[in-house]
């Protein structure tokens, strides 16, 4: 169970976006939280999760890429102990496949297929860190979908 209050608020925004279709409300909440945590200088866990979520509510692919890159930079500063302290039931290694998948998809949308394939490779390299649960299956299906999209054709 997640016990971190900031992560709980970020999750409220994720729910507003994914389950209620309130993309702009989620973006506004995320921007408010971003300011409260001190932006990129904040707790790396908050920065990573918030940037990852903020990328999903962008209308502009370059902005989406900016947020995805922030999330990846922050995950490099995380520890398994910090995740456990916040009640996040996974290891840091389990975050990389999703982050690289998102970056790969951004680069695909921007037409930079070499970079897209590079990040897809990073995502695939870390796939063993994922469990065989709903989250792991979601990321694996995303990797399969993107692999097909990037196949020479």
Please tell me what the overall shape is.
globular
Number of helices: 8
Total strands: the figure is 0
Share of residues in helices: over 70%
Characterise this structure:
The model has no long low-confidence stretch (mean pLDDT 94). 71% of the residues lie in helices and 0% in strands. The radius of gyration is 15 Å and the shape is globular. With 153 residues, it is mainly α.
Topology overview:
Blueprint: H1 5-18, H2 23-37, H3 44-56, H4 61-75, H5 80-86, H6 96-109, H7 113-125, H8 134-150
Helix pairs in contact: 1-2, 1-3, 2-3, 3-4, 4-6, 6-7, 6-8, 7-8
What would the keywords be for this entry?
globular; 71% helix; 153 residues; mainly alpha; 8 helices
Task: Offer a quick outline of the entry.
With 153 residues, the chain is mostly helical. It has helices at 5-18, 23-37, 44-56, 61-75, 80-86, 96-109, 113-125, 134-150.
């Amino acid at each position: 169970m997640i016990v971190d209050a900031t992560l709980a608020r970020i999750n409220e925004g994720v729910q507003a976006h994914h389950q209620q279709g309130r993309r702009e409300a989620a973006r506004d909440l995320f921007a408010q939280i971003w300011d409260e945590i001190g932006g990129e200088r904040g707790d790396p866990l908050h920065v990573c999760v918030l940037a990852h979520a903020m990328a999903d509510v962008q209308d502009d692919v370059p902005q989406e890429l900016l947020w995805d890159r922030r999330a990846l930079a922050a995950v490099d500063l995380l520890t398994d102990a910090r995740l456990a302290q916040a009640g996040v039931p996974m290891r840091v290694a389990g975050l990389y496949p999703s982050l690289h998948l998102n970056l790969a998809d951004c680069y695909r949308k921007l037409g930079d297929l070499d970079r897209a394939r590079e990040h897809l490779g990073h995502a695939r390299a870390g796939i063993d860190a994922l469990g065989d649960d709903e989250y792991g299956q979601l990321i694996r299906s995303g990797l399969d979908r993107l692999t097909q999209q990037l196949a020479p054709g």
